[in-house]
Amino acid sequence: MTGFVDLRNVRLTYGGTADGTLALDGLDINVKKGEFAAVVGPSGCGKSTLMKLATGLITPQEGTVEVAEKEVSGPVSIAGMAFQNPSMLPWRTTLANVMLPLEIVQPHRSKLRREKASYVARAEDLLKLVGLAGFGEKYPWQLSGGMQQRANLCRALIHDPALLMLDEPFGALDAFTREELWQVMRNLHAEKGFTVILVTHDLREAVYLADKVFVMSARPGRIIKEREVTFERPRPIELTYENAFNDIVHELRGLIADARAAA
Amino acid sequence: MSTRTLITIAPWACTAALFLVWEAAVALFDIPVFVLPAPSDIWAAMVKYWSPIWKNSVQTLYTTLAGFLMSIAGGLALGLAIGWNRVVYAGLYPLMIGFNAIPKVALVPILVIWFGIGDIPAILTAFLISFFPIVVNVATGISTIEPEMEDVLRALGAKKLDIMLKVGIPRSMPYFFGSLKVAITLAFVGSVISEIMAANSGVGHMMIGAQSQFNVPLVWAALVVLAILGIVMYALMAWIEIRMTGWAHRSAPA
Ligand SMILES: Nc1ncnc2c1ncn2[C@@H]1O[C@H](COP(=O)(O)OP(=O)(O)OP(=O)(O)O)[C@@H](O)[C@H]1O
Ligand SMILES: [Mg+2]
């Protein structure tokens, strides 16, 4: 069975095949619809590259990339993306920032003017879901880092993407805010049922949120382990202190340490 | 007095002190007027010649602003083009660096050959000398878009034009308005240089006339007028900058 996101035998070199950087080689990854996948691996192994491939920002030299059973040849536009850097536009209010994708993606783009009110309501609902109710009129620079990251999530979700791509979105936050946003993410996924690929350095984050954790080798990156995480949902945050949870975290930790040593 | 009041008073106090010391020095050392006129002599010249000073100031302002407006139009257009397209950038940037390296004074004789003595060489010198900082600033604003922002938008299927309109152009505005302060000062320099070298009117031309008649207080009066005009134009641009791009000032970590 083919998955929702399906990369097969992908090879990607940056900057010329002869003398460039070989980032990914022989990478296979398969994420089913509605699944929450996490990708972990040594720094520089090609995780961000994987995100760009799956969203069609770059195309591989070898292998195939399929999303929603269609071969990807350009930007997919059914995806929403969020990075560690919230990259809010400082001249727009938070609400206007969140609504930015609607000015790009069809069919919203042509409907935005006529159905402004309903779109604004939608953005405000999202802001409420992430705990930012009433902050829409504030400018991003009036928000804390954690609040900006919440707004960043809203921006990634405003056009109801079937696929959410997150590249270390919680990396720069303090431990408490991070755990709070894990729960926000957990709830959003439960409520909206989109497919998620989350790149992270935080193994507890990966195990807490994901149905499946992919472990990558050092560069050139490929998948060396696919670890199912079967804890029942909704997962309480206390789960992260249980032994079964920590066993998986340690198992992944060992795999990454080995991958780093092998490099 | 609080530091705050002192800070408000300081610029005025320093200016007043400069003129007082100057006046006193001229009296004390008995410096002849043709070497260095006292501020009171300069003031007297300004009062006596207010009508030609006024007319020539208007002329200089006119050529400066005309050249400056051309710079804004040309600088914005070229800056956007260069920031938009890497090939355009690669092609034009070395040319522009080379052009910018030419002292613009050296162009005035050529402009006079082409257009004769009059307003046009002054306007064109003002334009040529002031458009470069605008181009560079606008292009910088556009080409420093965060790669993450670009990825987010491109993944949504945004075209280059979308990215330009939604991010590039708004983002380059603080750079653009910031460059206007520099550009207006340069345009002013260009106009005056051109007037000094070849013109029938303008503050620069008036200075040359006064010099040939050995009317030293008027030469100095013209200089003071230039300083005042320069400060006023700079202040105006600084005010416009803050009005137009408040977000850039507030969003910077204080
Ligand atoms: N635009 C680029 N041009 C050239 N090389 C690149 C480019 N982007 C990434 N690389 C190289 O490709 C490799 C993988 O990069 P990538 O950003 O995908 O790693 P990553 O796993 O996301 O790293 P990190 O965990 O530190 O974020 C690195 O060796 C990097 O130097
Ligand atoms: Mg990365």
Automatic annotation (TrEMBL), chain A:
Signal peptide: none annotated. InterPro entries: AAA+_ATPase, ABC_transporter-like_ATP-bd, ABC_transporter-like_CS, ABC_transporter_ATP-bind, P-loop_NTPase. Coiled coil: none annotated. CDD domains: ABC_NrtD_SsuB_transporters. Residues 5-243 form the ABC transporter domain. It holds the Pfam family ABC_tran. SMART domains: AAA. GO terms for molecular function: ATP binding. Keywords: ATP-binding, Nucleotide-binding, Transport. Belongs to the ABC transporter superfamily. This is NitT/TauT family transport system ATP-binding protein. It comes from Roseibium denhamense.
UniProtKB/TrEMBL annotation, chain B:
Belongs to the binding-protein-dependent transport system permease family. This is NitT/TauT family transport system permease protein. It comes from the Bacteria. Residues 57-237 form the ABC transmembrane type-1 domain. Its main location: membrane. Signal peptide: none annotated. It comes from Roseibium denhamense. The keyword Protease does not apply. PROSITE patterns: ABC_TM1. It is found in: Cell membrane. InterPro entries: MetI-like, MetI-like_sf. It is a multi-pass membrane protein. SUPFAM superfamilies: MetI-like (SSF161098). The keyword Transmembrane helix applies. The chain crosses the membrane at residues 61-83, 95-117, 123-145, 175-198, 218-240. Keywords: Cell membrane, Membrane, Transmembrane, Transmembrane helix, Transport.
